[in-house]
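Sync notes, pocket subgroup
Present: LS, DG
LS reminded everyone that the earlier model was apo-only. Rerun requested with ribulose-5-phosphate included. Inputs:
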Amino acid sequence: MNQDEMKQAVAKAAIDYVIPGTIIGVGTGSTANYFIDELAKIKGKIEGTVASSVASAERLKAHGIHVFDLNAVDGISIYVDGADEANKHLHLIKGGGGALTREKIVAAASDKFICIADESKLVNRLGRFPLPVEVIPMARSLVAREIIKQVGGEPVLREGFTTDNGNIIIDIHNLDIMEPVKTEQLLNGITGVVTNGLFAIKPATVLLLGCQDGIKTID
Ligand code: 5RP
């Protein structure tokens, strides 16, 4: 199996977690796209979805799947999304596609977070993948200085990118994340930061990994 086939297999496996008659939170990225395509096959069994990005909402609607505004729903049963890195504690780095803030909001509104990824995403220590931070544009320089002071690493502006919320992304390179919860808290405490791509305070509930020899479940 190549990487795409592993993503597809794990997206298919996530369908087993879908609770009929409920609202499903849907993430962003290539693995989440495979999940959307699988969800389309059982769309009559769910009440609808809440999407974590404009791109995912468009893909869902193209399949004829109803997309609710988050404010219009009482709750979400499961949130299904990919990750850029994951460790065995189910702490994640997300936001490679820049949708981290809405992803964190939809995950927070969901009873369970089913993370789907190919085996290359499992790491011993988070941080080789540059950690995305969504920032209010006028605070760019202040936030970059504070990142260096408070957590270290090399903050780099993601050139030519604007989030669905109209903000910028600073990616922190070369950060060895020894204490993911602490790093997530420190970054969120910097004035001008909207949120960061660490999902450690509220980790995934289950990690489904697409591997050469099948699906591995870590929970
Ligand atoms: C987007 C994300 C994605 O989940 C992450 O980038 C993984 O993407 P892919 O499934 O394409 O490997 O956080 O903001």
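DG: The chain has a mean pLDDT of 97.
LS: The chain has six helices and 13 strands.
Action: DG to write up.
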